[in-house]
Design a protein that fits this description.
The protein is an alpha/beta fold. It is built from 6 helices and 10 strands. It has helices spanning about 30-40, 55-60, 80-95, 115-125, 185-190, 215-225; strands at about 5-10, 25, 25-30, 45-50, 100-105, 130-135, 150, 155-160, 175-185, 200-205. β2 and β3 form a beta hairpin.
């Protein structure tokens, strides 16, 4: 199975201006994701898609492939991730390059323990699903079996649709949320089904000690402190 790592890193950012090229603990933020991909024994190529000339130079100097400048209409604040990935895949396919699966690595979730990406790919291959995501366990107080939705009459009902709430924490089934670190999807699913997930989704549980999702200056400060204590 040949896998392409795609790292989306546009130049604009409102929460943390210029964050993808901003130095985090001595390294540009994007470098953490590029390094993780290059160190993986399962990634055939690492591609950065960006509209920013400085990011292009940084990515190339680190060993990533930057074969195009991302079009402006795919680099706006509201641009979804899926068309950005599809554009990159279509560009490479036009050059005759084919990949079985795409691994999306978001720079905003920069910390991945050594070997974690390889373990994710190996799990994906083993499960033979359409896709895989990295996740963290939902704290019990936010478990969907213990959360409520208001119906059209303004009456609360259990979010899972059950009639009776599970009384004990120990009886709750585990629930997970995406942590943004790793997404792997079959190329056919991305391009033909127009989906990042497909019909079957495997998962790998991340180490919560590495978790940060950089969107605000407070997140950046957290990441700066975290970078001093973790080993990558």
């Amino acid at each position: 199975m040949t896998i392409l790592a795609i790292i989306p890193a546009r130049g604009g950012s409102k929460g943390v201006p210029g964050k993808n090229k901003k130095l985090l603990h001595g390294k540009p933020l994007i470098q953490y994701s590029i390094d993780a991909a290059l160190q993986s024994k399962h990634i055939a190529e690492v591609l950065v898609t960006t509209d920013d000339s400085a990011i292009i130079e940084i990515a190339k100097s680190l060993g990533a492939n930057v074969p195009f400048v991302r079009p402006t209409h795919l680099a706006e604040d509201t641009t979804p991730t899926l068309p950005v990935i599809q554009h990159a895949v279509a560009f490479l396919e036009a050059q005759g390059k084919k990949f079985d699966a795409i691994c999306l690595l978001q720079p905003t979730s920069p910390f991945r323990p050594k070997g974690f990406l390889d373990k994710a790919v190996e799990t994906f291959k083993e499960k033979q699903t359409d896709s895989l995501v990295s996740v963290l366990e939902v704290p019990h107080q936010y478990n969907p079996h213990w959360t409520f939705e208001a119906n059209e009459n303004g009456i609360l009902q259990i979010a899972t649709g059950e009639q009776h709430i599970i009384p004990r924490r120990q009886e709750l089934p585990k629930a997970y949320h995406r942590d943004g670190s790793i997404y792997i999807t079959k190329t056919k699913v991305l391009m033909e089904e127009n989906s990042l997930y497909g019909k079957s989704l495997a998962y790998i549980v991340s180490d919560e000690r590495y978790y940060v999702n950089i969107d605000t200056l407070e997140d950046w400060e957290k990441a700066t402190e975290l970078a001093k204590t973790i080993t990558l």
